[in-house]
Amino acid sequence: MKILIVEDEPKTGDYLRQGLSEAGFVADLARTGPDGLHLGVTGDYDLAILDVMLPGLDGWRLLQGLRAEGKQMPVLFLTARDQLEDRVKGLELGADDYLVKPFAFAELLARVRTLLRRGKPKEATDTLRAGDLELDLMRRRVVRSGRRIDLTAKEFALLELLLRRRGEVLPRSLIASQVWDMNFDSDTNVIEVAMRRLRAKIDDDFEPKLIRTVRGMGYVLEEPEPD
Q1: What domains are defined for the chain?
Q2: Does this model's pTM top 0.70?
Q3: How far apart are CA 104 and CA 106, in angstroms?
């Protein structure tokens, strides 16, 4: 998932970018309000972390600009301003959360993950599809070629992530953070085991195969080519 950071204090900005990258996210950093607005409008971000006091364009107007351009990603304000009026103003403008400096990175990461879960883009339907594979989000059911497939809770979450990001190669670090809510440990094979079990259920007895391993990078679920 992609996160936009707009922070003019160099140490804080670099610290956030490095920490979020190590947690499995793609993090872009802008150091001024106008640069943040340009990235936010032209890029495709899942969440934005905004400082309030920014050169060129403050965080309030930056948020207004993003919303005016139809950008509805969750927004977390990260600022030294801890007055109640400031927090209320941010929420009224469309912010989703507010964290006051100084902060613990573990708390920020927990809030980021909560906002990402809460802010997942809604599909036009409650069913995710790829070829003859269907995942019903409301009834928690998976069907392929008319055959019901029983999945564990983790397998269901893993398949949902693959379907939502179909066509995109997902690194193991991102899968770990989104499905297991943990940092990636290169010494564990939990992701490989779960992926192998998922593929055995939805791919082994069917054609075409939907899930592919990209060596050295991760996994991707690809739409089958039309006949």
Answers
A1: 2-118 (3.40.50.2300), 127-221 (1.10.10.10)
A2: no
A3: 5
